[in-house]
UniProtKB/TrEMBL annotation:
Belongs to the methyltransferase superfamily. L-isoaspartyl/D-aspartyl protein methyltransferase family. The active site is at S75. This is Protein-L-isoaspartate O-methyltransferase. GO terms for molecular function: protein-L-isoaspartate (D-aspartate) O-methyltransferase activity. Coiled coil: none annotated.
Length: 227
């Protein structure tokens, strides 16, 4: 057996998590309309394979949602990129953002990689604890709390951007109320099965603009805390 054959594929850079595989995902996102280079760069640098179970790591750079336990999923990279890009649309320069539904922590990490001050809320304690370990291991300084994200985080608002990563039948007023003037909220809205990814931007007087970005499928936004 040659030395090369004894090396783990990761070590010689041909593994399913290698930079080449990650770059292929970036090209795919670009082909599917993600144009903001800052966002593409964040997706390129944040190691998505560390946000899923080791058994799924080889699939981490496919453009697909993957299970993270507790019946939840890490969002599809295209959806993460689309939501993130929406916060920067029209020359917006967000600083402080809120995510509802930490899950694996991947979306929060992407936002932090863009230099944003990230707040994230998760109702399932075990998912939050695992996400916090990832933030620490990767050096991300992200504020998080175990709570029902439908109330937002009023003490720390208002936010320049709010990203809701679980679907509700309608926009949640308490969250819209925590948007700063000029801020953008992105949220999947609709019943189980399929939803619309809504984007709304508000100015000092209220909502000025609402757009439907894409059809999406998210897990539901639920009430009540789970350990
Ligand atoms: N942004 C996540 C996606 C996770 S899936 C990621 O990048 O991995 C959606 C998450 O929202 C789940 O973890 C689910 O537990 C959480 N969630 C659902 N309803 C919630 C609520 N009311 N408050 C906070 N989190 C909620």
């Amino acid at each position: 057996m040659t030395a090369r054959m004894r090396l783990h594929p990761e070590a010689i850079g041909v593994g399913m998590t290698s930079q080449r595989v990650r770059d292929r995902l970036i090209e795919r996102l670009r082909d599917n309309g993600i144009a903001d280079e800052r966002v593409l760069n964040a997706v390129r640098t944040v190691p998505r394979h560390l946000f899923v179970d080791e058994a799924l790591a080889t699939r981490a750079y496919e453009d697909t949602a993957l299970p993270i336990g507790h019946g939840q999923t890490i969002s599809q990279p295209w959806v993460v990129a689309k939501m993130t890009e929406a916060l920067f649309a029209n020359g917006a320069q967000p600083k402080k953002v809120l995510e509802v539904g930490t899950g694996s922590g991947y979306q929060a990490a992407i936002l932090a990689a863009l230099g944003l001050e990230v707040h994230t809320v998760e109702r399932i304690g075990e998912l939050l604890r695992t996400a916090r370990k990832r933030f620490r291991a990767l050096g991300f300084n992200i504020r998080s709390k175990h709570d029902d994200g439908r109330i937002g985080w009023p003490e720390n608002g208002p936010f320049d951007g709010i990203v809701v990563t679980a679907a509700a039948p309608a926009l949640v007023d308490a969250l819209t109320a925590q948007l700063a003037p000029g801020g953008t909220l992105v949220a999947p809205v609709g019943g189980s099965g399929a939803q619309s990814l809504l984007c709304l931007r508000r100015d000092a007087d209220g909502v000025v603009d609402q757009a439907n970005l894409a059809p999406v499928v998210f897990v539901p936004l639920l009430s009540g805390l789970v350990d």
